[in-house]
Design brief:
alpha/beta, 4-stranded mixed β-sheet, 20 strands, about 25% strand
Length: about 600
């Protein structure tokens, strides 16, 4: 109780100190900006002004006000329909908007009109809310601003806020690195889950809902709209995708289309509107930009990697947090509109690329893109001038961004081109009925499975985990695991009801990534098989010691192996328990299920 009493005055003192300044007081200065996209803003008093525009492009409305405005628009326009596609952990309805020439009111009916659908998703991180307000402006212009022709050859499916619970944890203090809006939501959900780490494990109800929406609507392009932190630079709209500059992609045909068709057209539209598009930037050292930036493939816990793995063209849009909210929202509005036009214009080519990637069955799957860069190039980088000064708070040199443009010719770019893991494609996996949680996740992704109708005996592989390491603290609500494996082959009788997951399906690559335990985003790595990490039977020393002596008498090769281990491993030689354990693991008493991955593999 005393600790609580002491904490309250400290918290009160902090609030008093915070009240002495504004949230953006310590942000670097923003370069002055004006652009043609400012013409998108309607004047005060316009009948369909958005709440953001009504605030002078300085604030973003609460969720209920957002939904109410969209429902009012839908009631007045035959082109716009509002649907509910799920519920949050706190029970809020998840709202989406369908904009189509035919007035389609169900996501599952979108593929039937024969037009490509652009799925634009805002607020997966609900403090990064530009996509919501940009989408509302574009929908207004589609309904009543003369842009209904955008729907002649494409559909728009718009999620204003995916993390609706986090959105309502509104505050002026939520995003210290971001210039507006005045009120910002929270990064994580009511369950404290980061939805842009949840694409593979599909733990959150919001993620399960959006995965179902993707399967129903079959979009041709997926836009995941964020606001990025990090270093300062001139670019206001940055984005990335698998296959950038010819880099790695699980869907190489799609990656090529994004890089060679969409990217130049999108950049041209943004520049014409007065914006500065650029690559998604991650500085090697945030205190020293001269060390360069890093570019690497996205792992599938993120939308960009996940979309690519399931052969869905996906862009991760990261507006620059230090640019004014007004500038960012307008750039996002141009981006969504441009993507609708580009997808409509190139619909046949894009669909052909998607079909080719879905039909491919590569024999090698590259995974684990979390290593250090292995290749370096350079780029001309549109940066912002800076200097450094000693900080008494950090005790080191801290960068100060000055707000004036400064180009960096030949800035180093550190690429990751080699994966940490390469897996040979199996024919199928067999999931036991004892793993309903894994079966549920596979079903959430839309992966096809077929139950065995009777007990079946097959020669199959199993993995044995080698030196698994479980995280001491949870990450995204789960204790994660890293491991290596060794393969064991034998005859196994699988009971009726066991699910066979063939890799000869459009989502076969995704199934492999989910079910290979060495993959850092597999379900095993996300902690779905903790039961195999525990031994449940043991053997006493008075039993294993004489048994070990008999084993060495009967097997000279085993004895030689043991003596070699003693000679080369002094710690092992001095540890009686480790020595006896060595024999126990080679005895017929040993628990063969210990560390054995429960999913069988058909080669």
């Amino acid at each position: 109780m005393k600790r609580q009493a002491l904490a309250l005055p400290i918290l009160a003192l902090a609030c008093v100190c915070l009240s002495a300044f504004t949230p953006d007081e310590f942000l670097p200065p923003a370069p002055p900006w004006s652009g043609a996209s400012e013409a998108l803003i309607v004047p005060q008093g316009h009948p369909w002004i958005t709440p953001c525009e009504q605030s002078g492009m300085t604030d973003s409305p609460p969720y209920a006000e957002t939904v109410a405005w969209l429902e009012k628009l839908a009631a007045a326009s035959p082109l716009v329909r509002v649907i509910t596609f799920g519920r949050t952990a706190q029970g809020r309805p998840l709202c989406a908007v369908i904009a189509s020439r035919e007035g389609i009111s169900e996501a599952a009916k979108l593929p039937a009109n024969g037009k490509p659908t652009v799925l634009a998703q805002g607020g997966i991180h609900s403090g990064e809310i530009d996509g919501k307000d940009a989408g509302m402006m574009l929908l207004r212009d589609i309904a009543f601003g003369g842009k209904g022709t955008l729907l002649d050859h494409a559909n728009l499916l718009f999620i204003p806020v995916l993390n609706a619970d986090g959105h309502e944890r509104r505050s002026i203090w939520n995003r210290p690195n971001q210039r507006g809006p005045i009120h910002q939501g929270w990064r994580t959900t009511a369950q404290n889950l980061n939805l842009n780490r949840d694409y593979m494990k599909a733990q959150a109800p919001e993620m399960a809902a959006v995965l179902k929406l993707i399967q129903e609507s079959k979009p041709a392009l997926y836009l995941d709209i964020h606001v990025t932190d990090g270093v300062d630079y001139q670019y206001d709209i940055t984005y990335g995708f698998q296959g950038w500059d010819g880099g790695f992609a699980w869907s190489p045909k799609i990656g090529q289309w994004l890089d060679q068709t969409l990217r130049p057209a999108l950049d041209a539209d943004l520049k014409t509107a007065g914006h500065i598009p650029g690559p998604l930037v991650f500085a090697k050292n945030k205190r020293d930009l001269s060390q360069g930036i890093t570019l690497k493939p996205y792992d599938p816990r993120f939308s960009t990697g996940y979309g690519d793995l399931r052969h869905l063209p996906t862009l991760l849009i990261e507006n620059h947090s230090l640019k004014p909210f007004r500038q960012r929202v307008l750039g996002t509005c141009i981006l969504i509109e441009s993507c609708l036009r580009i997808v409509a214009q190139h619909r046949d080519d894009l669909q052909q690329r998607i079909s080719e990637d879905e039909a491919a069955r590569p024999q090698k799957i590259s995974l684990n893109w979390n290593r250090a860069a292995d290749h370096q190039t350079t780029m001309n980088f549109a940066g912002i001038a800076s200097d450094n000064s000693n900080s008494p708070a950090s005790g080191t040199q801290e960068v100060r961004w000055l707000g004036t443009p400064q180009d960096h010719p030949k800035l180093p770019v550190h690429h990751l081109t080699k994966p940490g893991l390469t897996v040979t494609r199996p024919k199928a996996y067999f999931i036991p009925v004892t793993k309903p949680d894994i079966l549920s996740v596979l079903a959430s992704h839309g992966i096809r499975m077929e139950p065995l109708k009777e007990d079946t005996t097959l020669t199959l592989d199993h993995y044995r985990l080698m030196d698994p390491v479980v995280s001491a603290t949870p990450f995204e609500g789960r204790h994660t695991m890293t491991t290596q494996v060794k393969t064991e082959t034998g005859k196994h009788t699988l009971p009726a009801g066991t699910m066979r997951v063939s890799t000869d399906q459009p989502l076969g690559d995704l199934a492999i990534a989910l079910l290979e335990p060495e993959h850092l985003d597999s379900l095993a790595a996300w902690g779905f098989v903790p039961e195999i990490l525990q031994r449940t039977e043991y053997i006493e020393g008075y039993v294993i010691a004489p048994l070990a002596e008999r084993m060495m008498e009967n097997d000279p090769k085993l004895k030689a192996e043991f003596e070699a281990r003693l000679a080369t491993d002094p710690a092992f030689a001095k540890d009686p328990e480790a020595r006896l354990q060595w024999f126990y693991e080679r005895s017929p008493f040993y628990d063969l299920e210990y560390l054995r991955y429960p999913i069988a593999i058909e080669r």
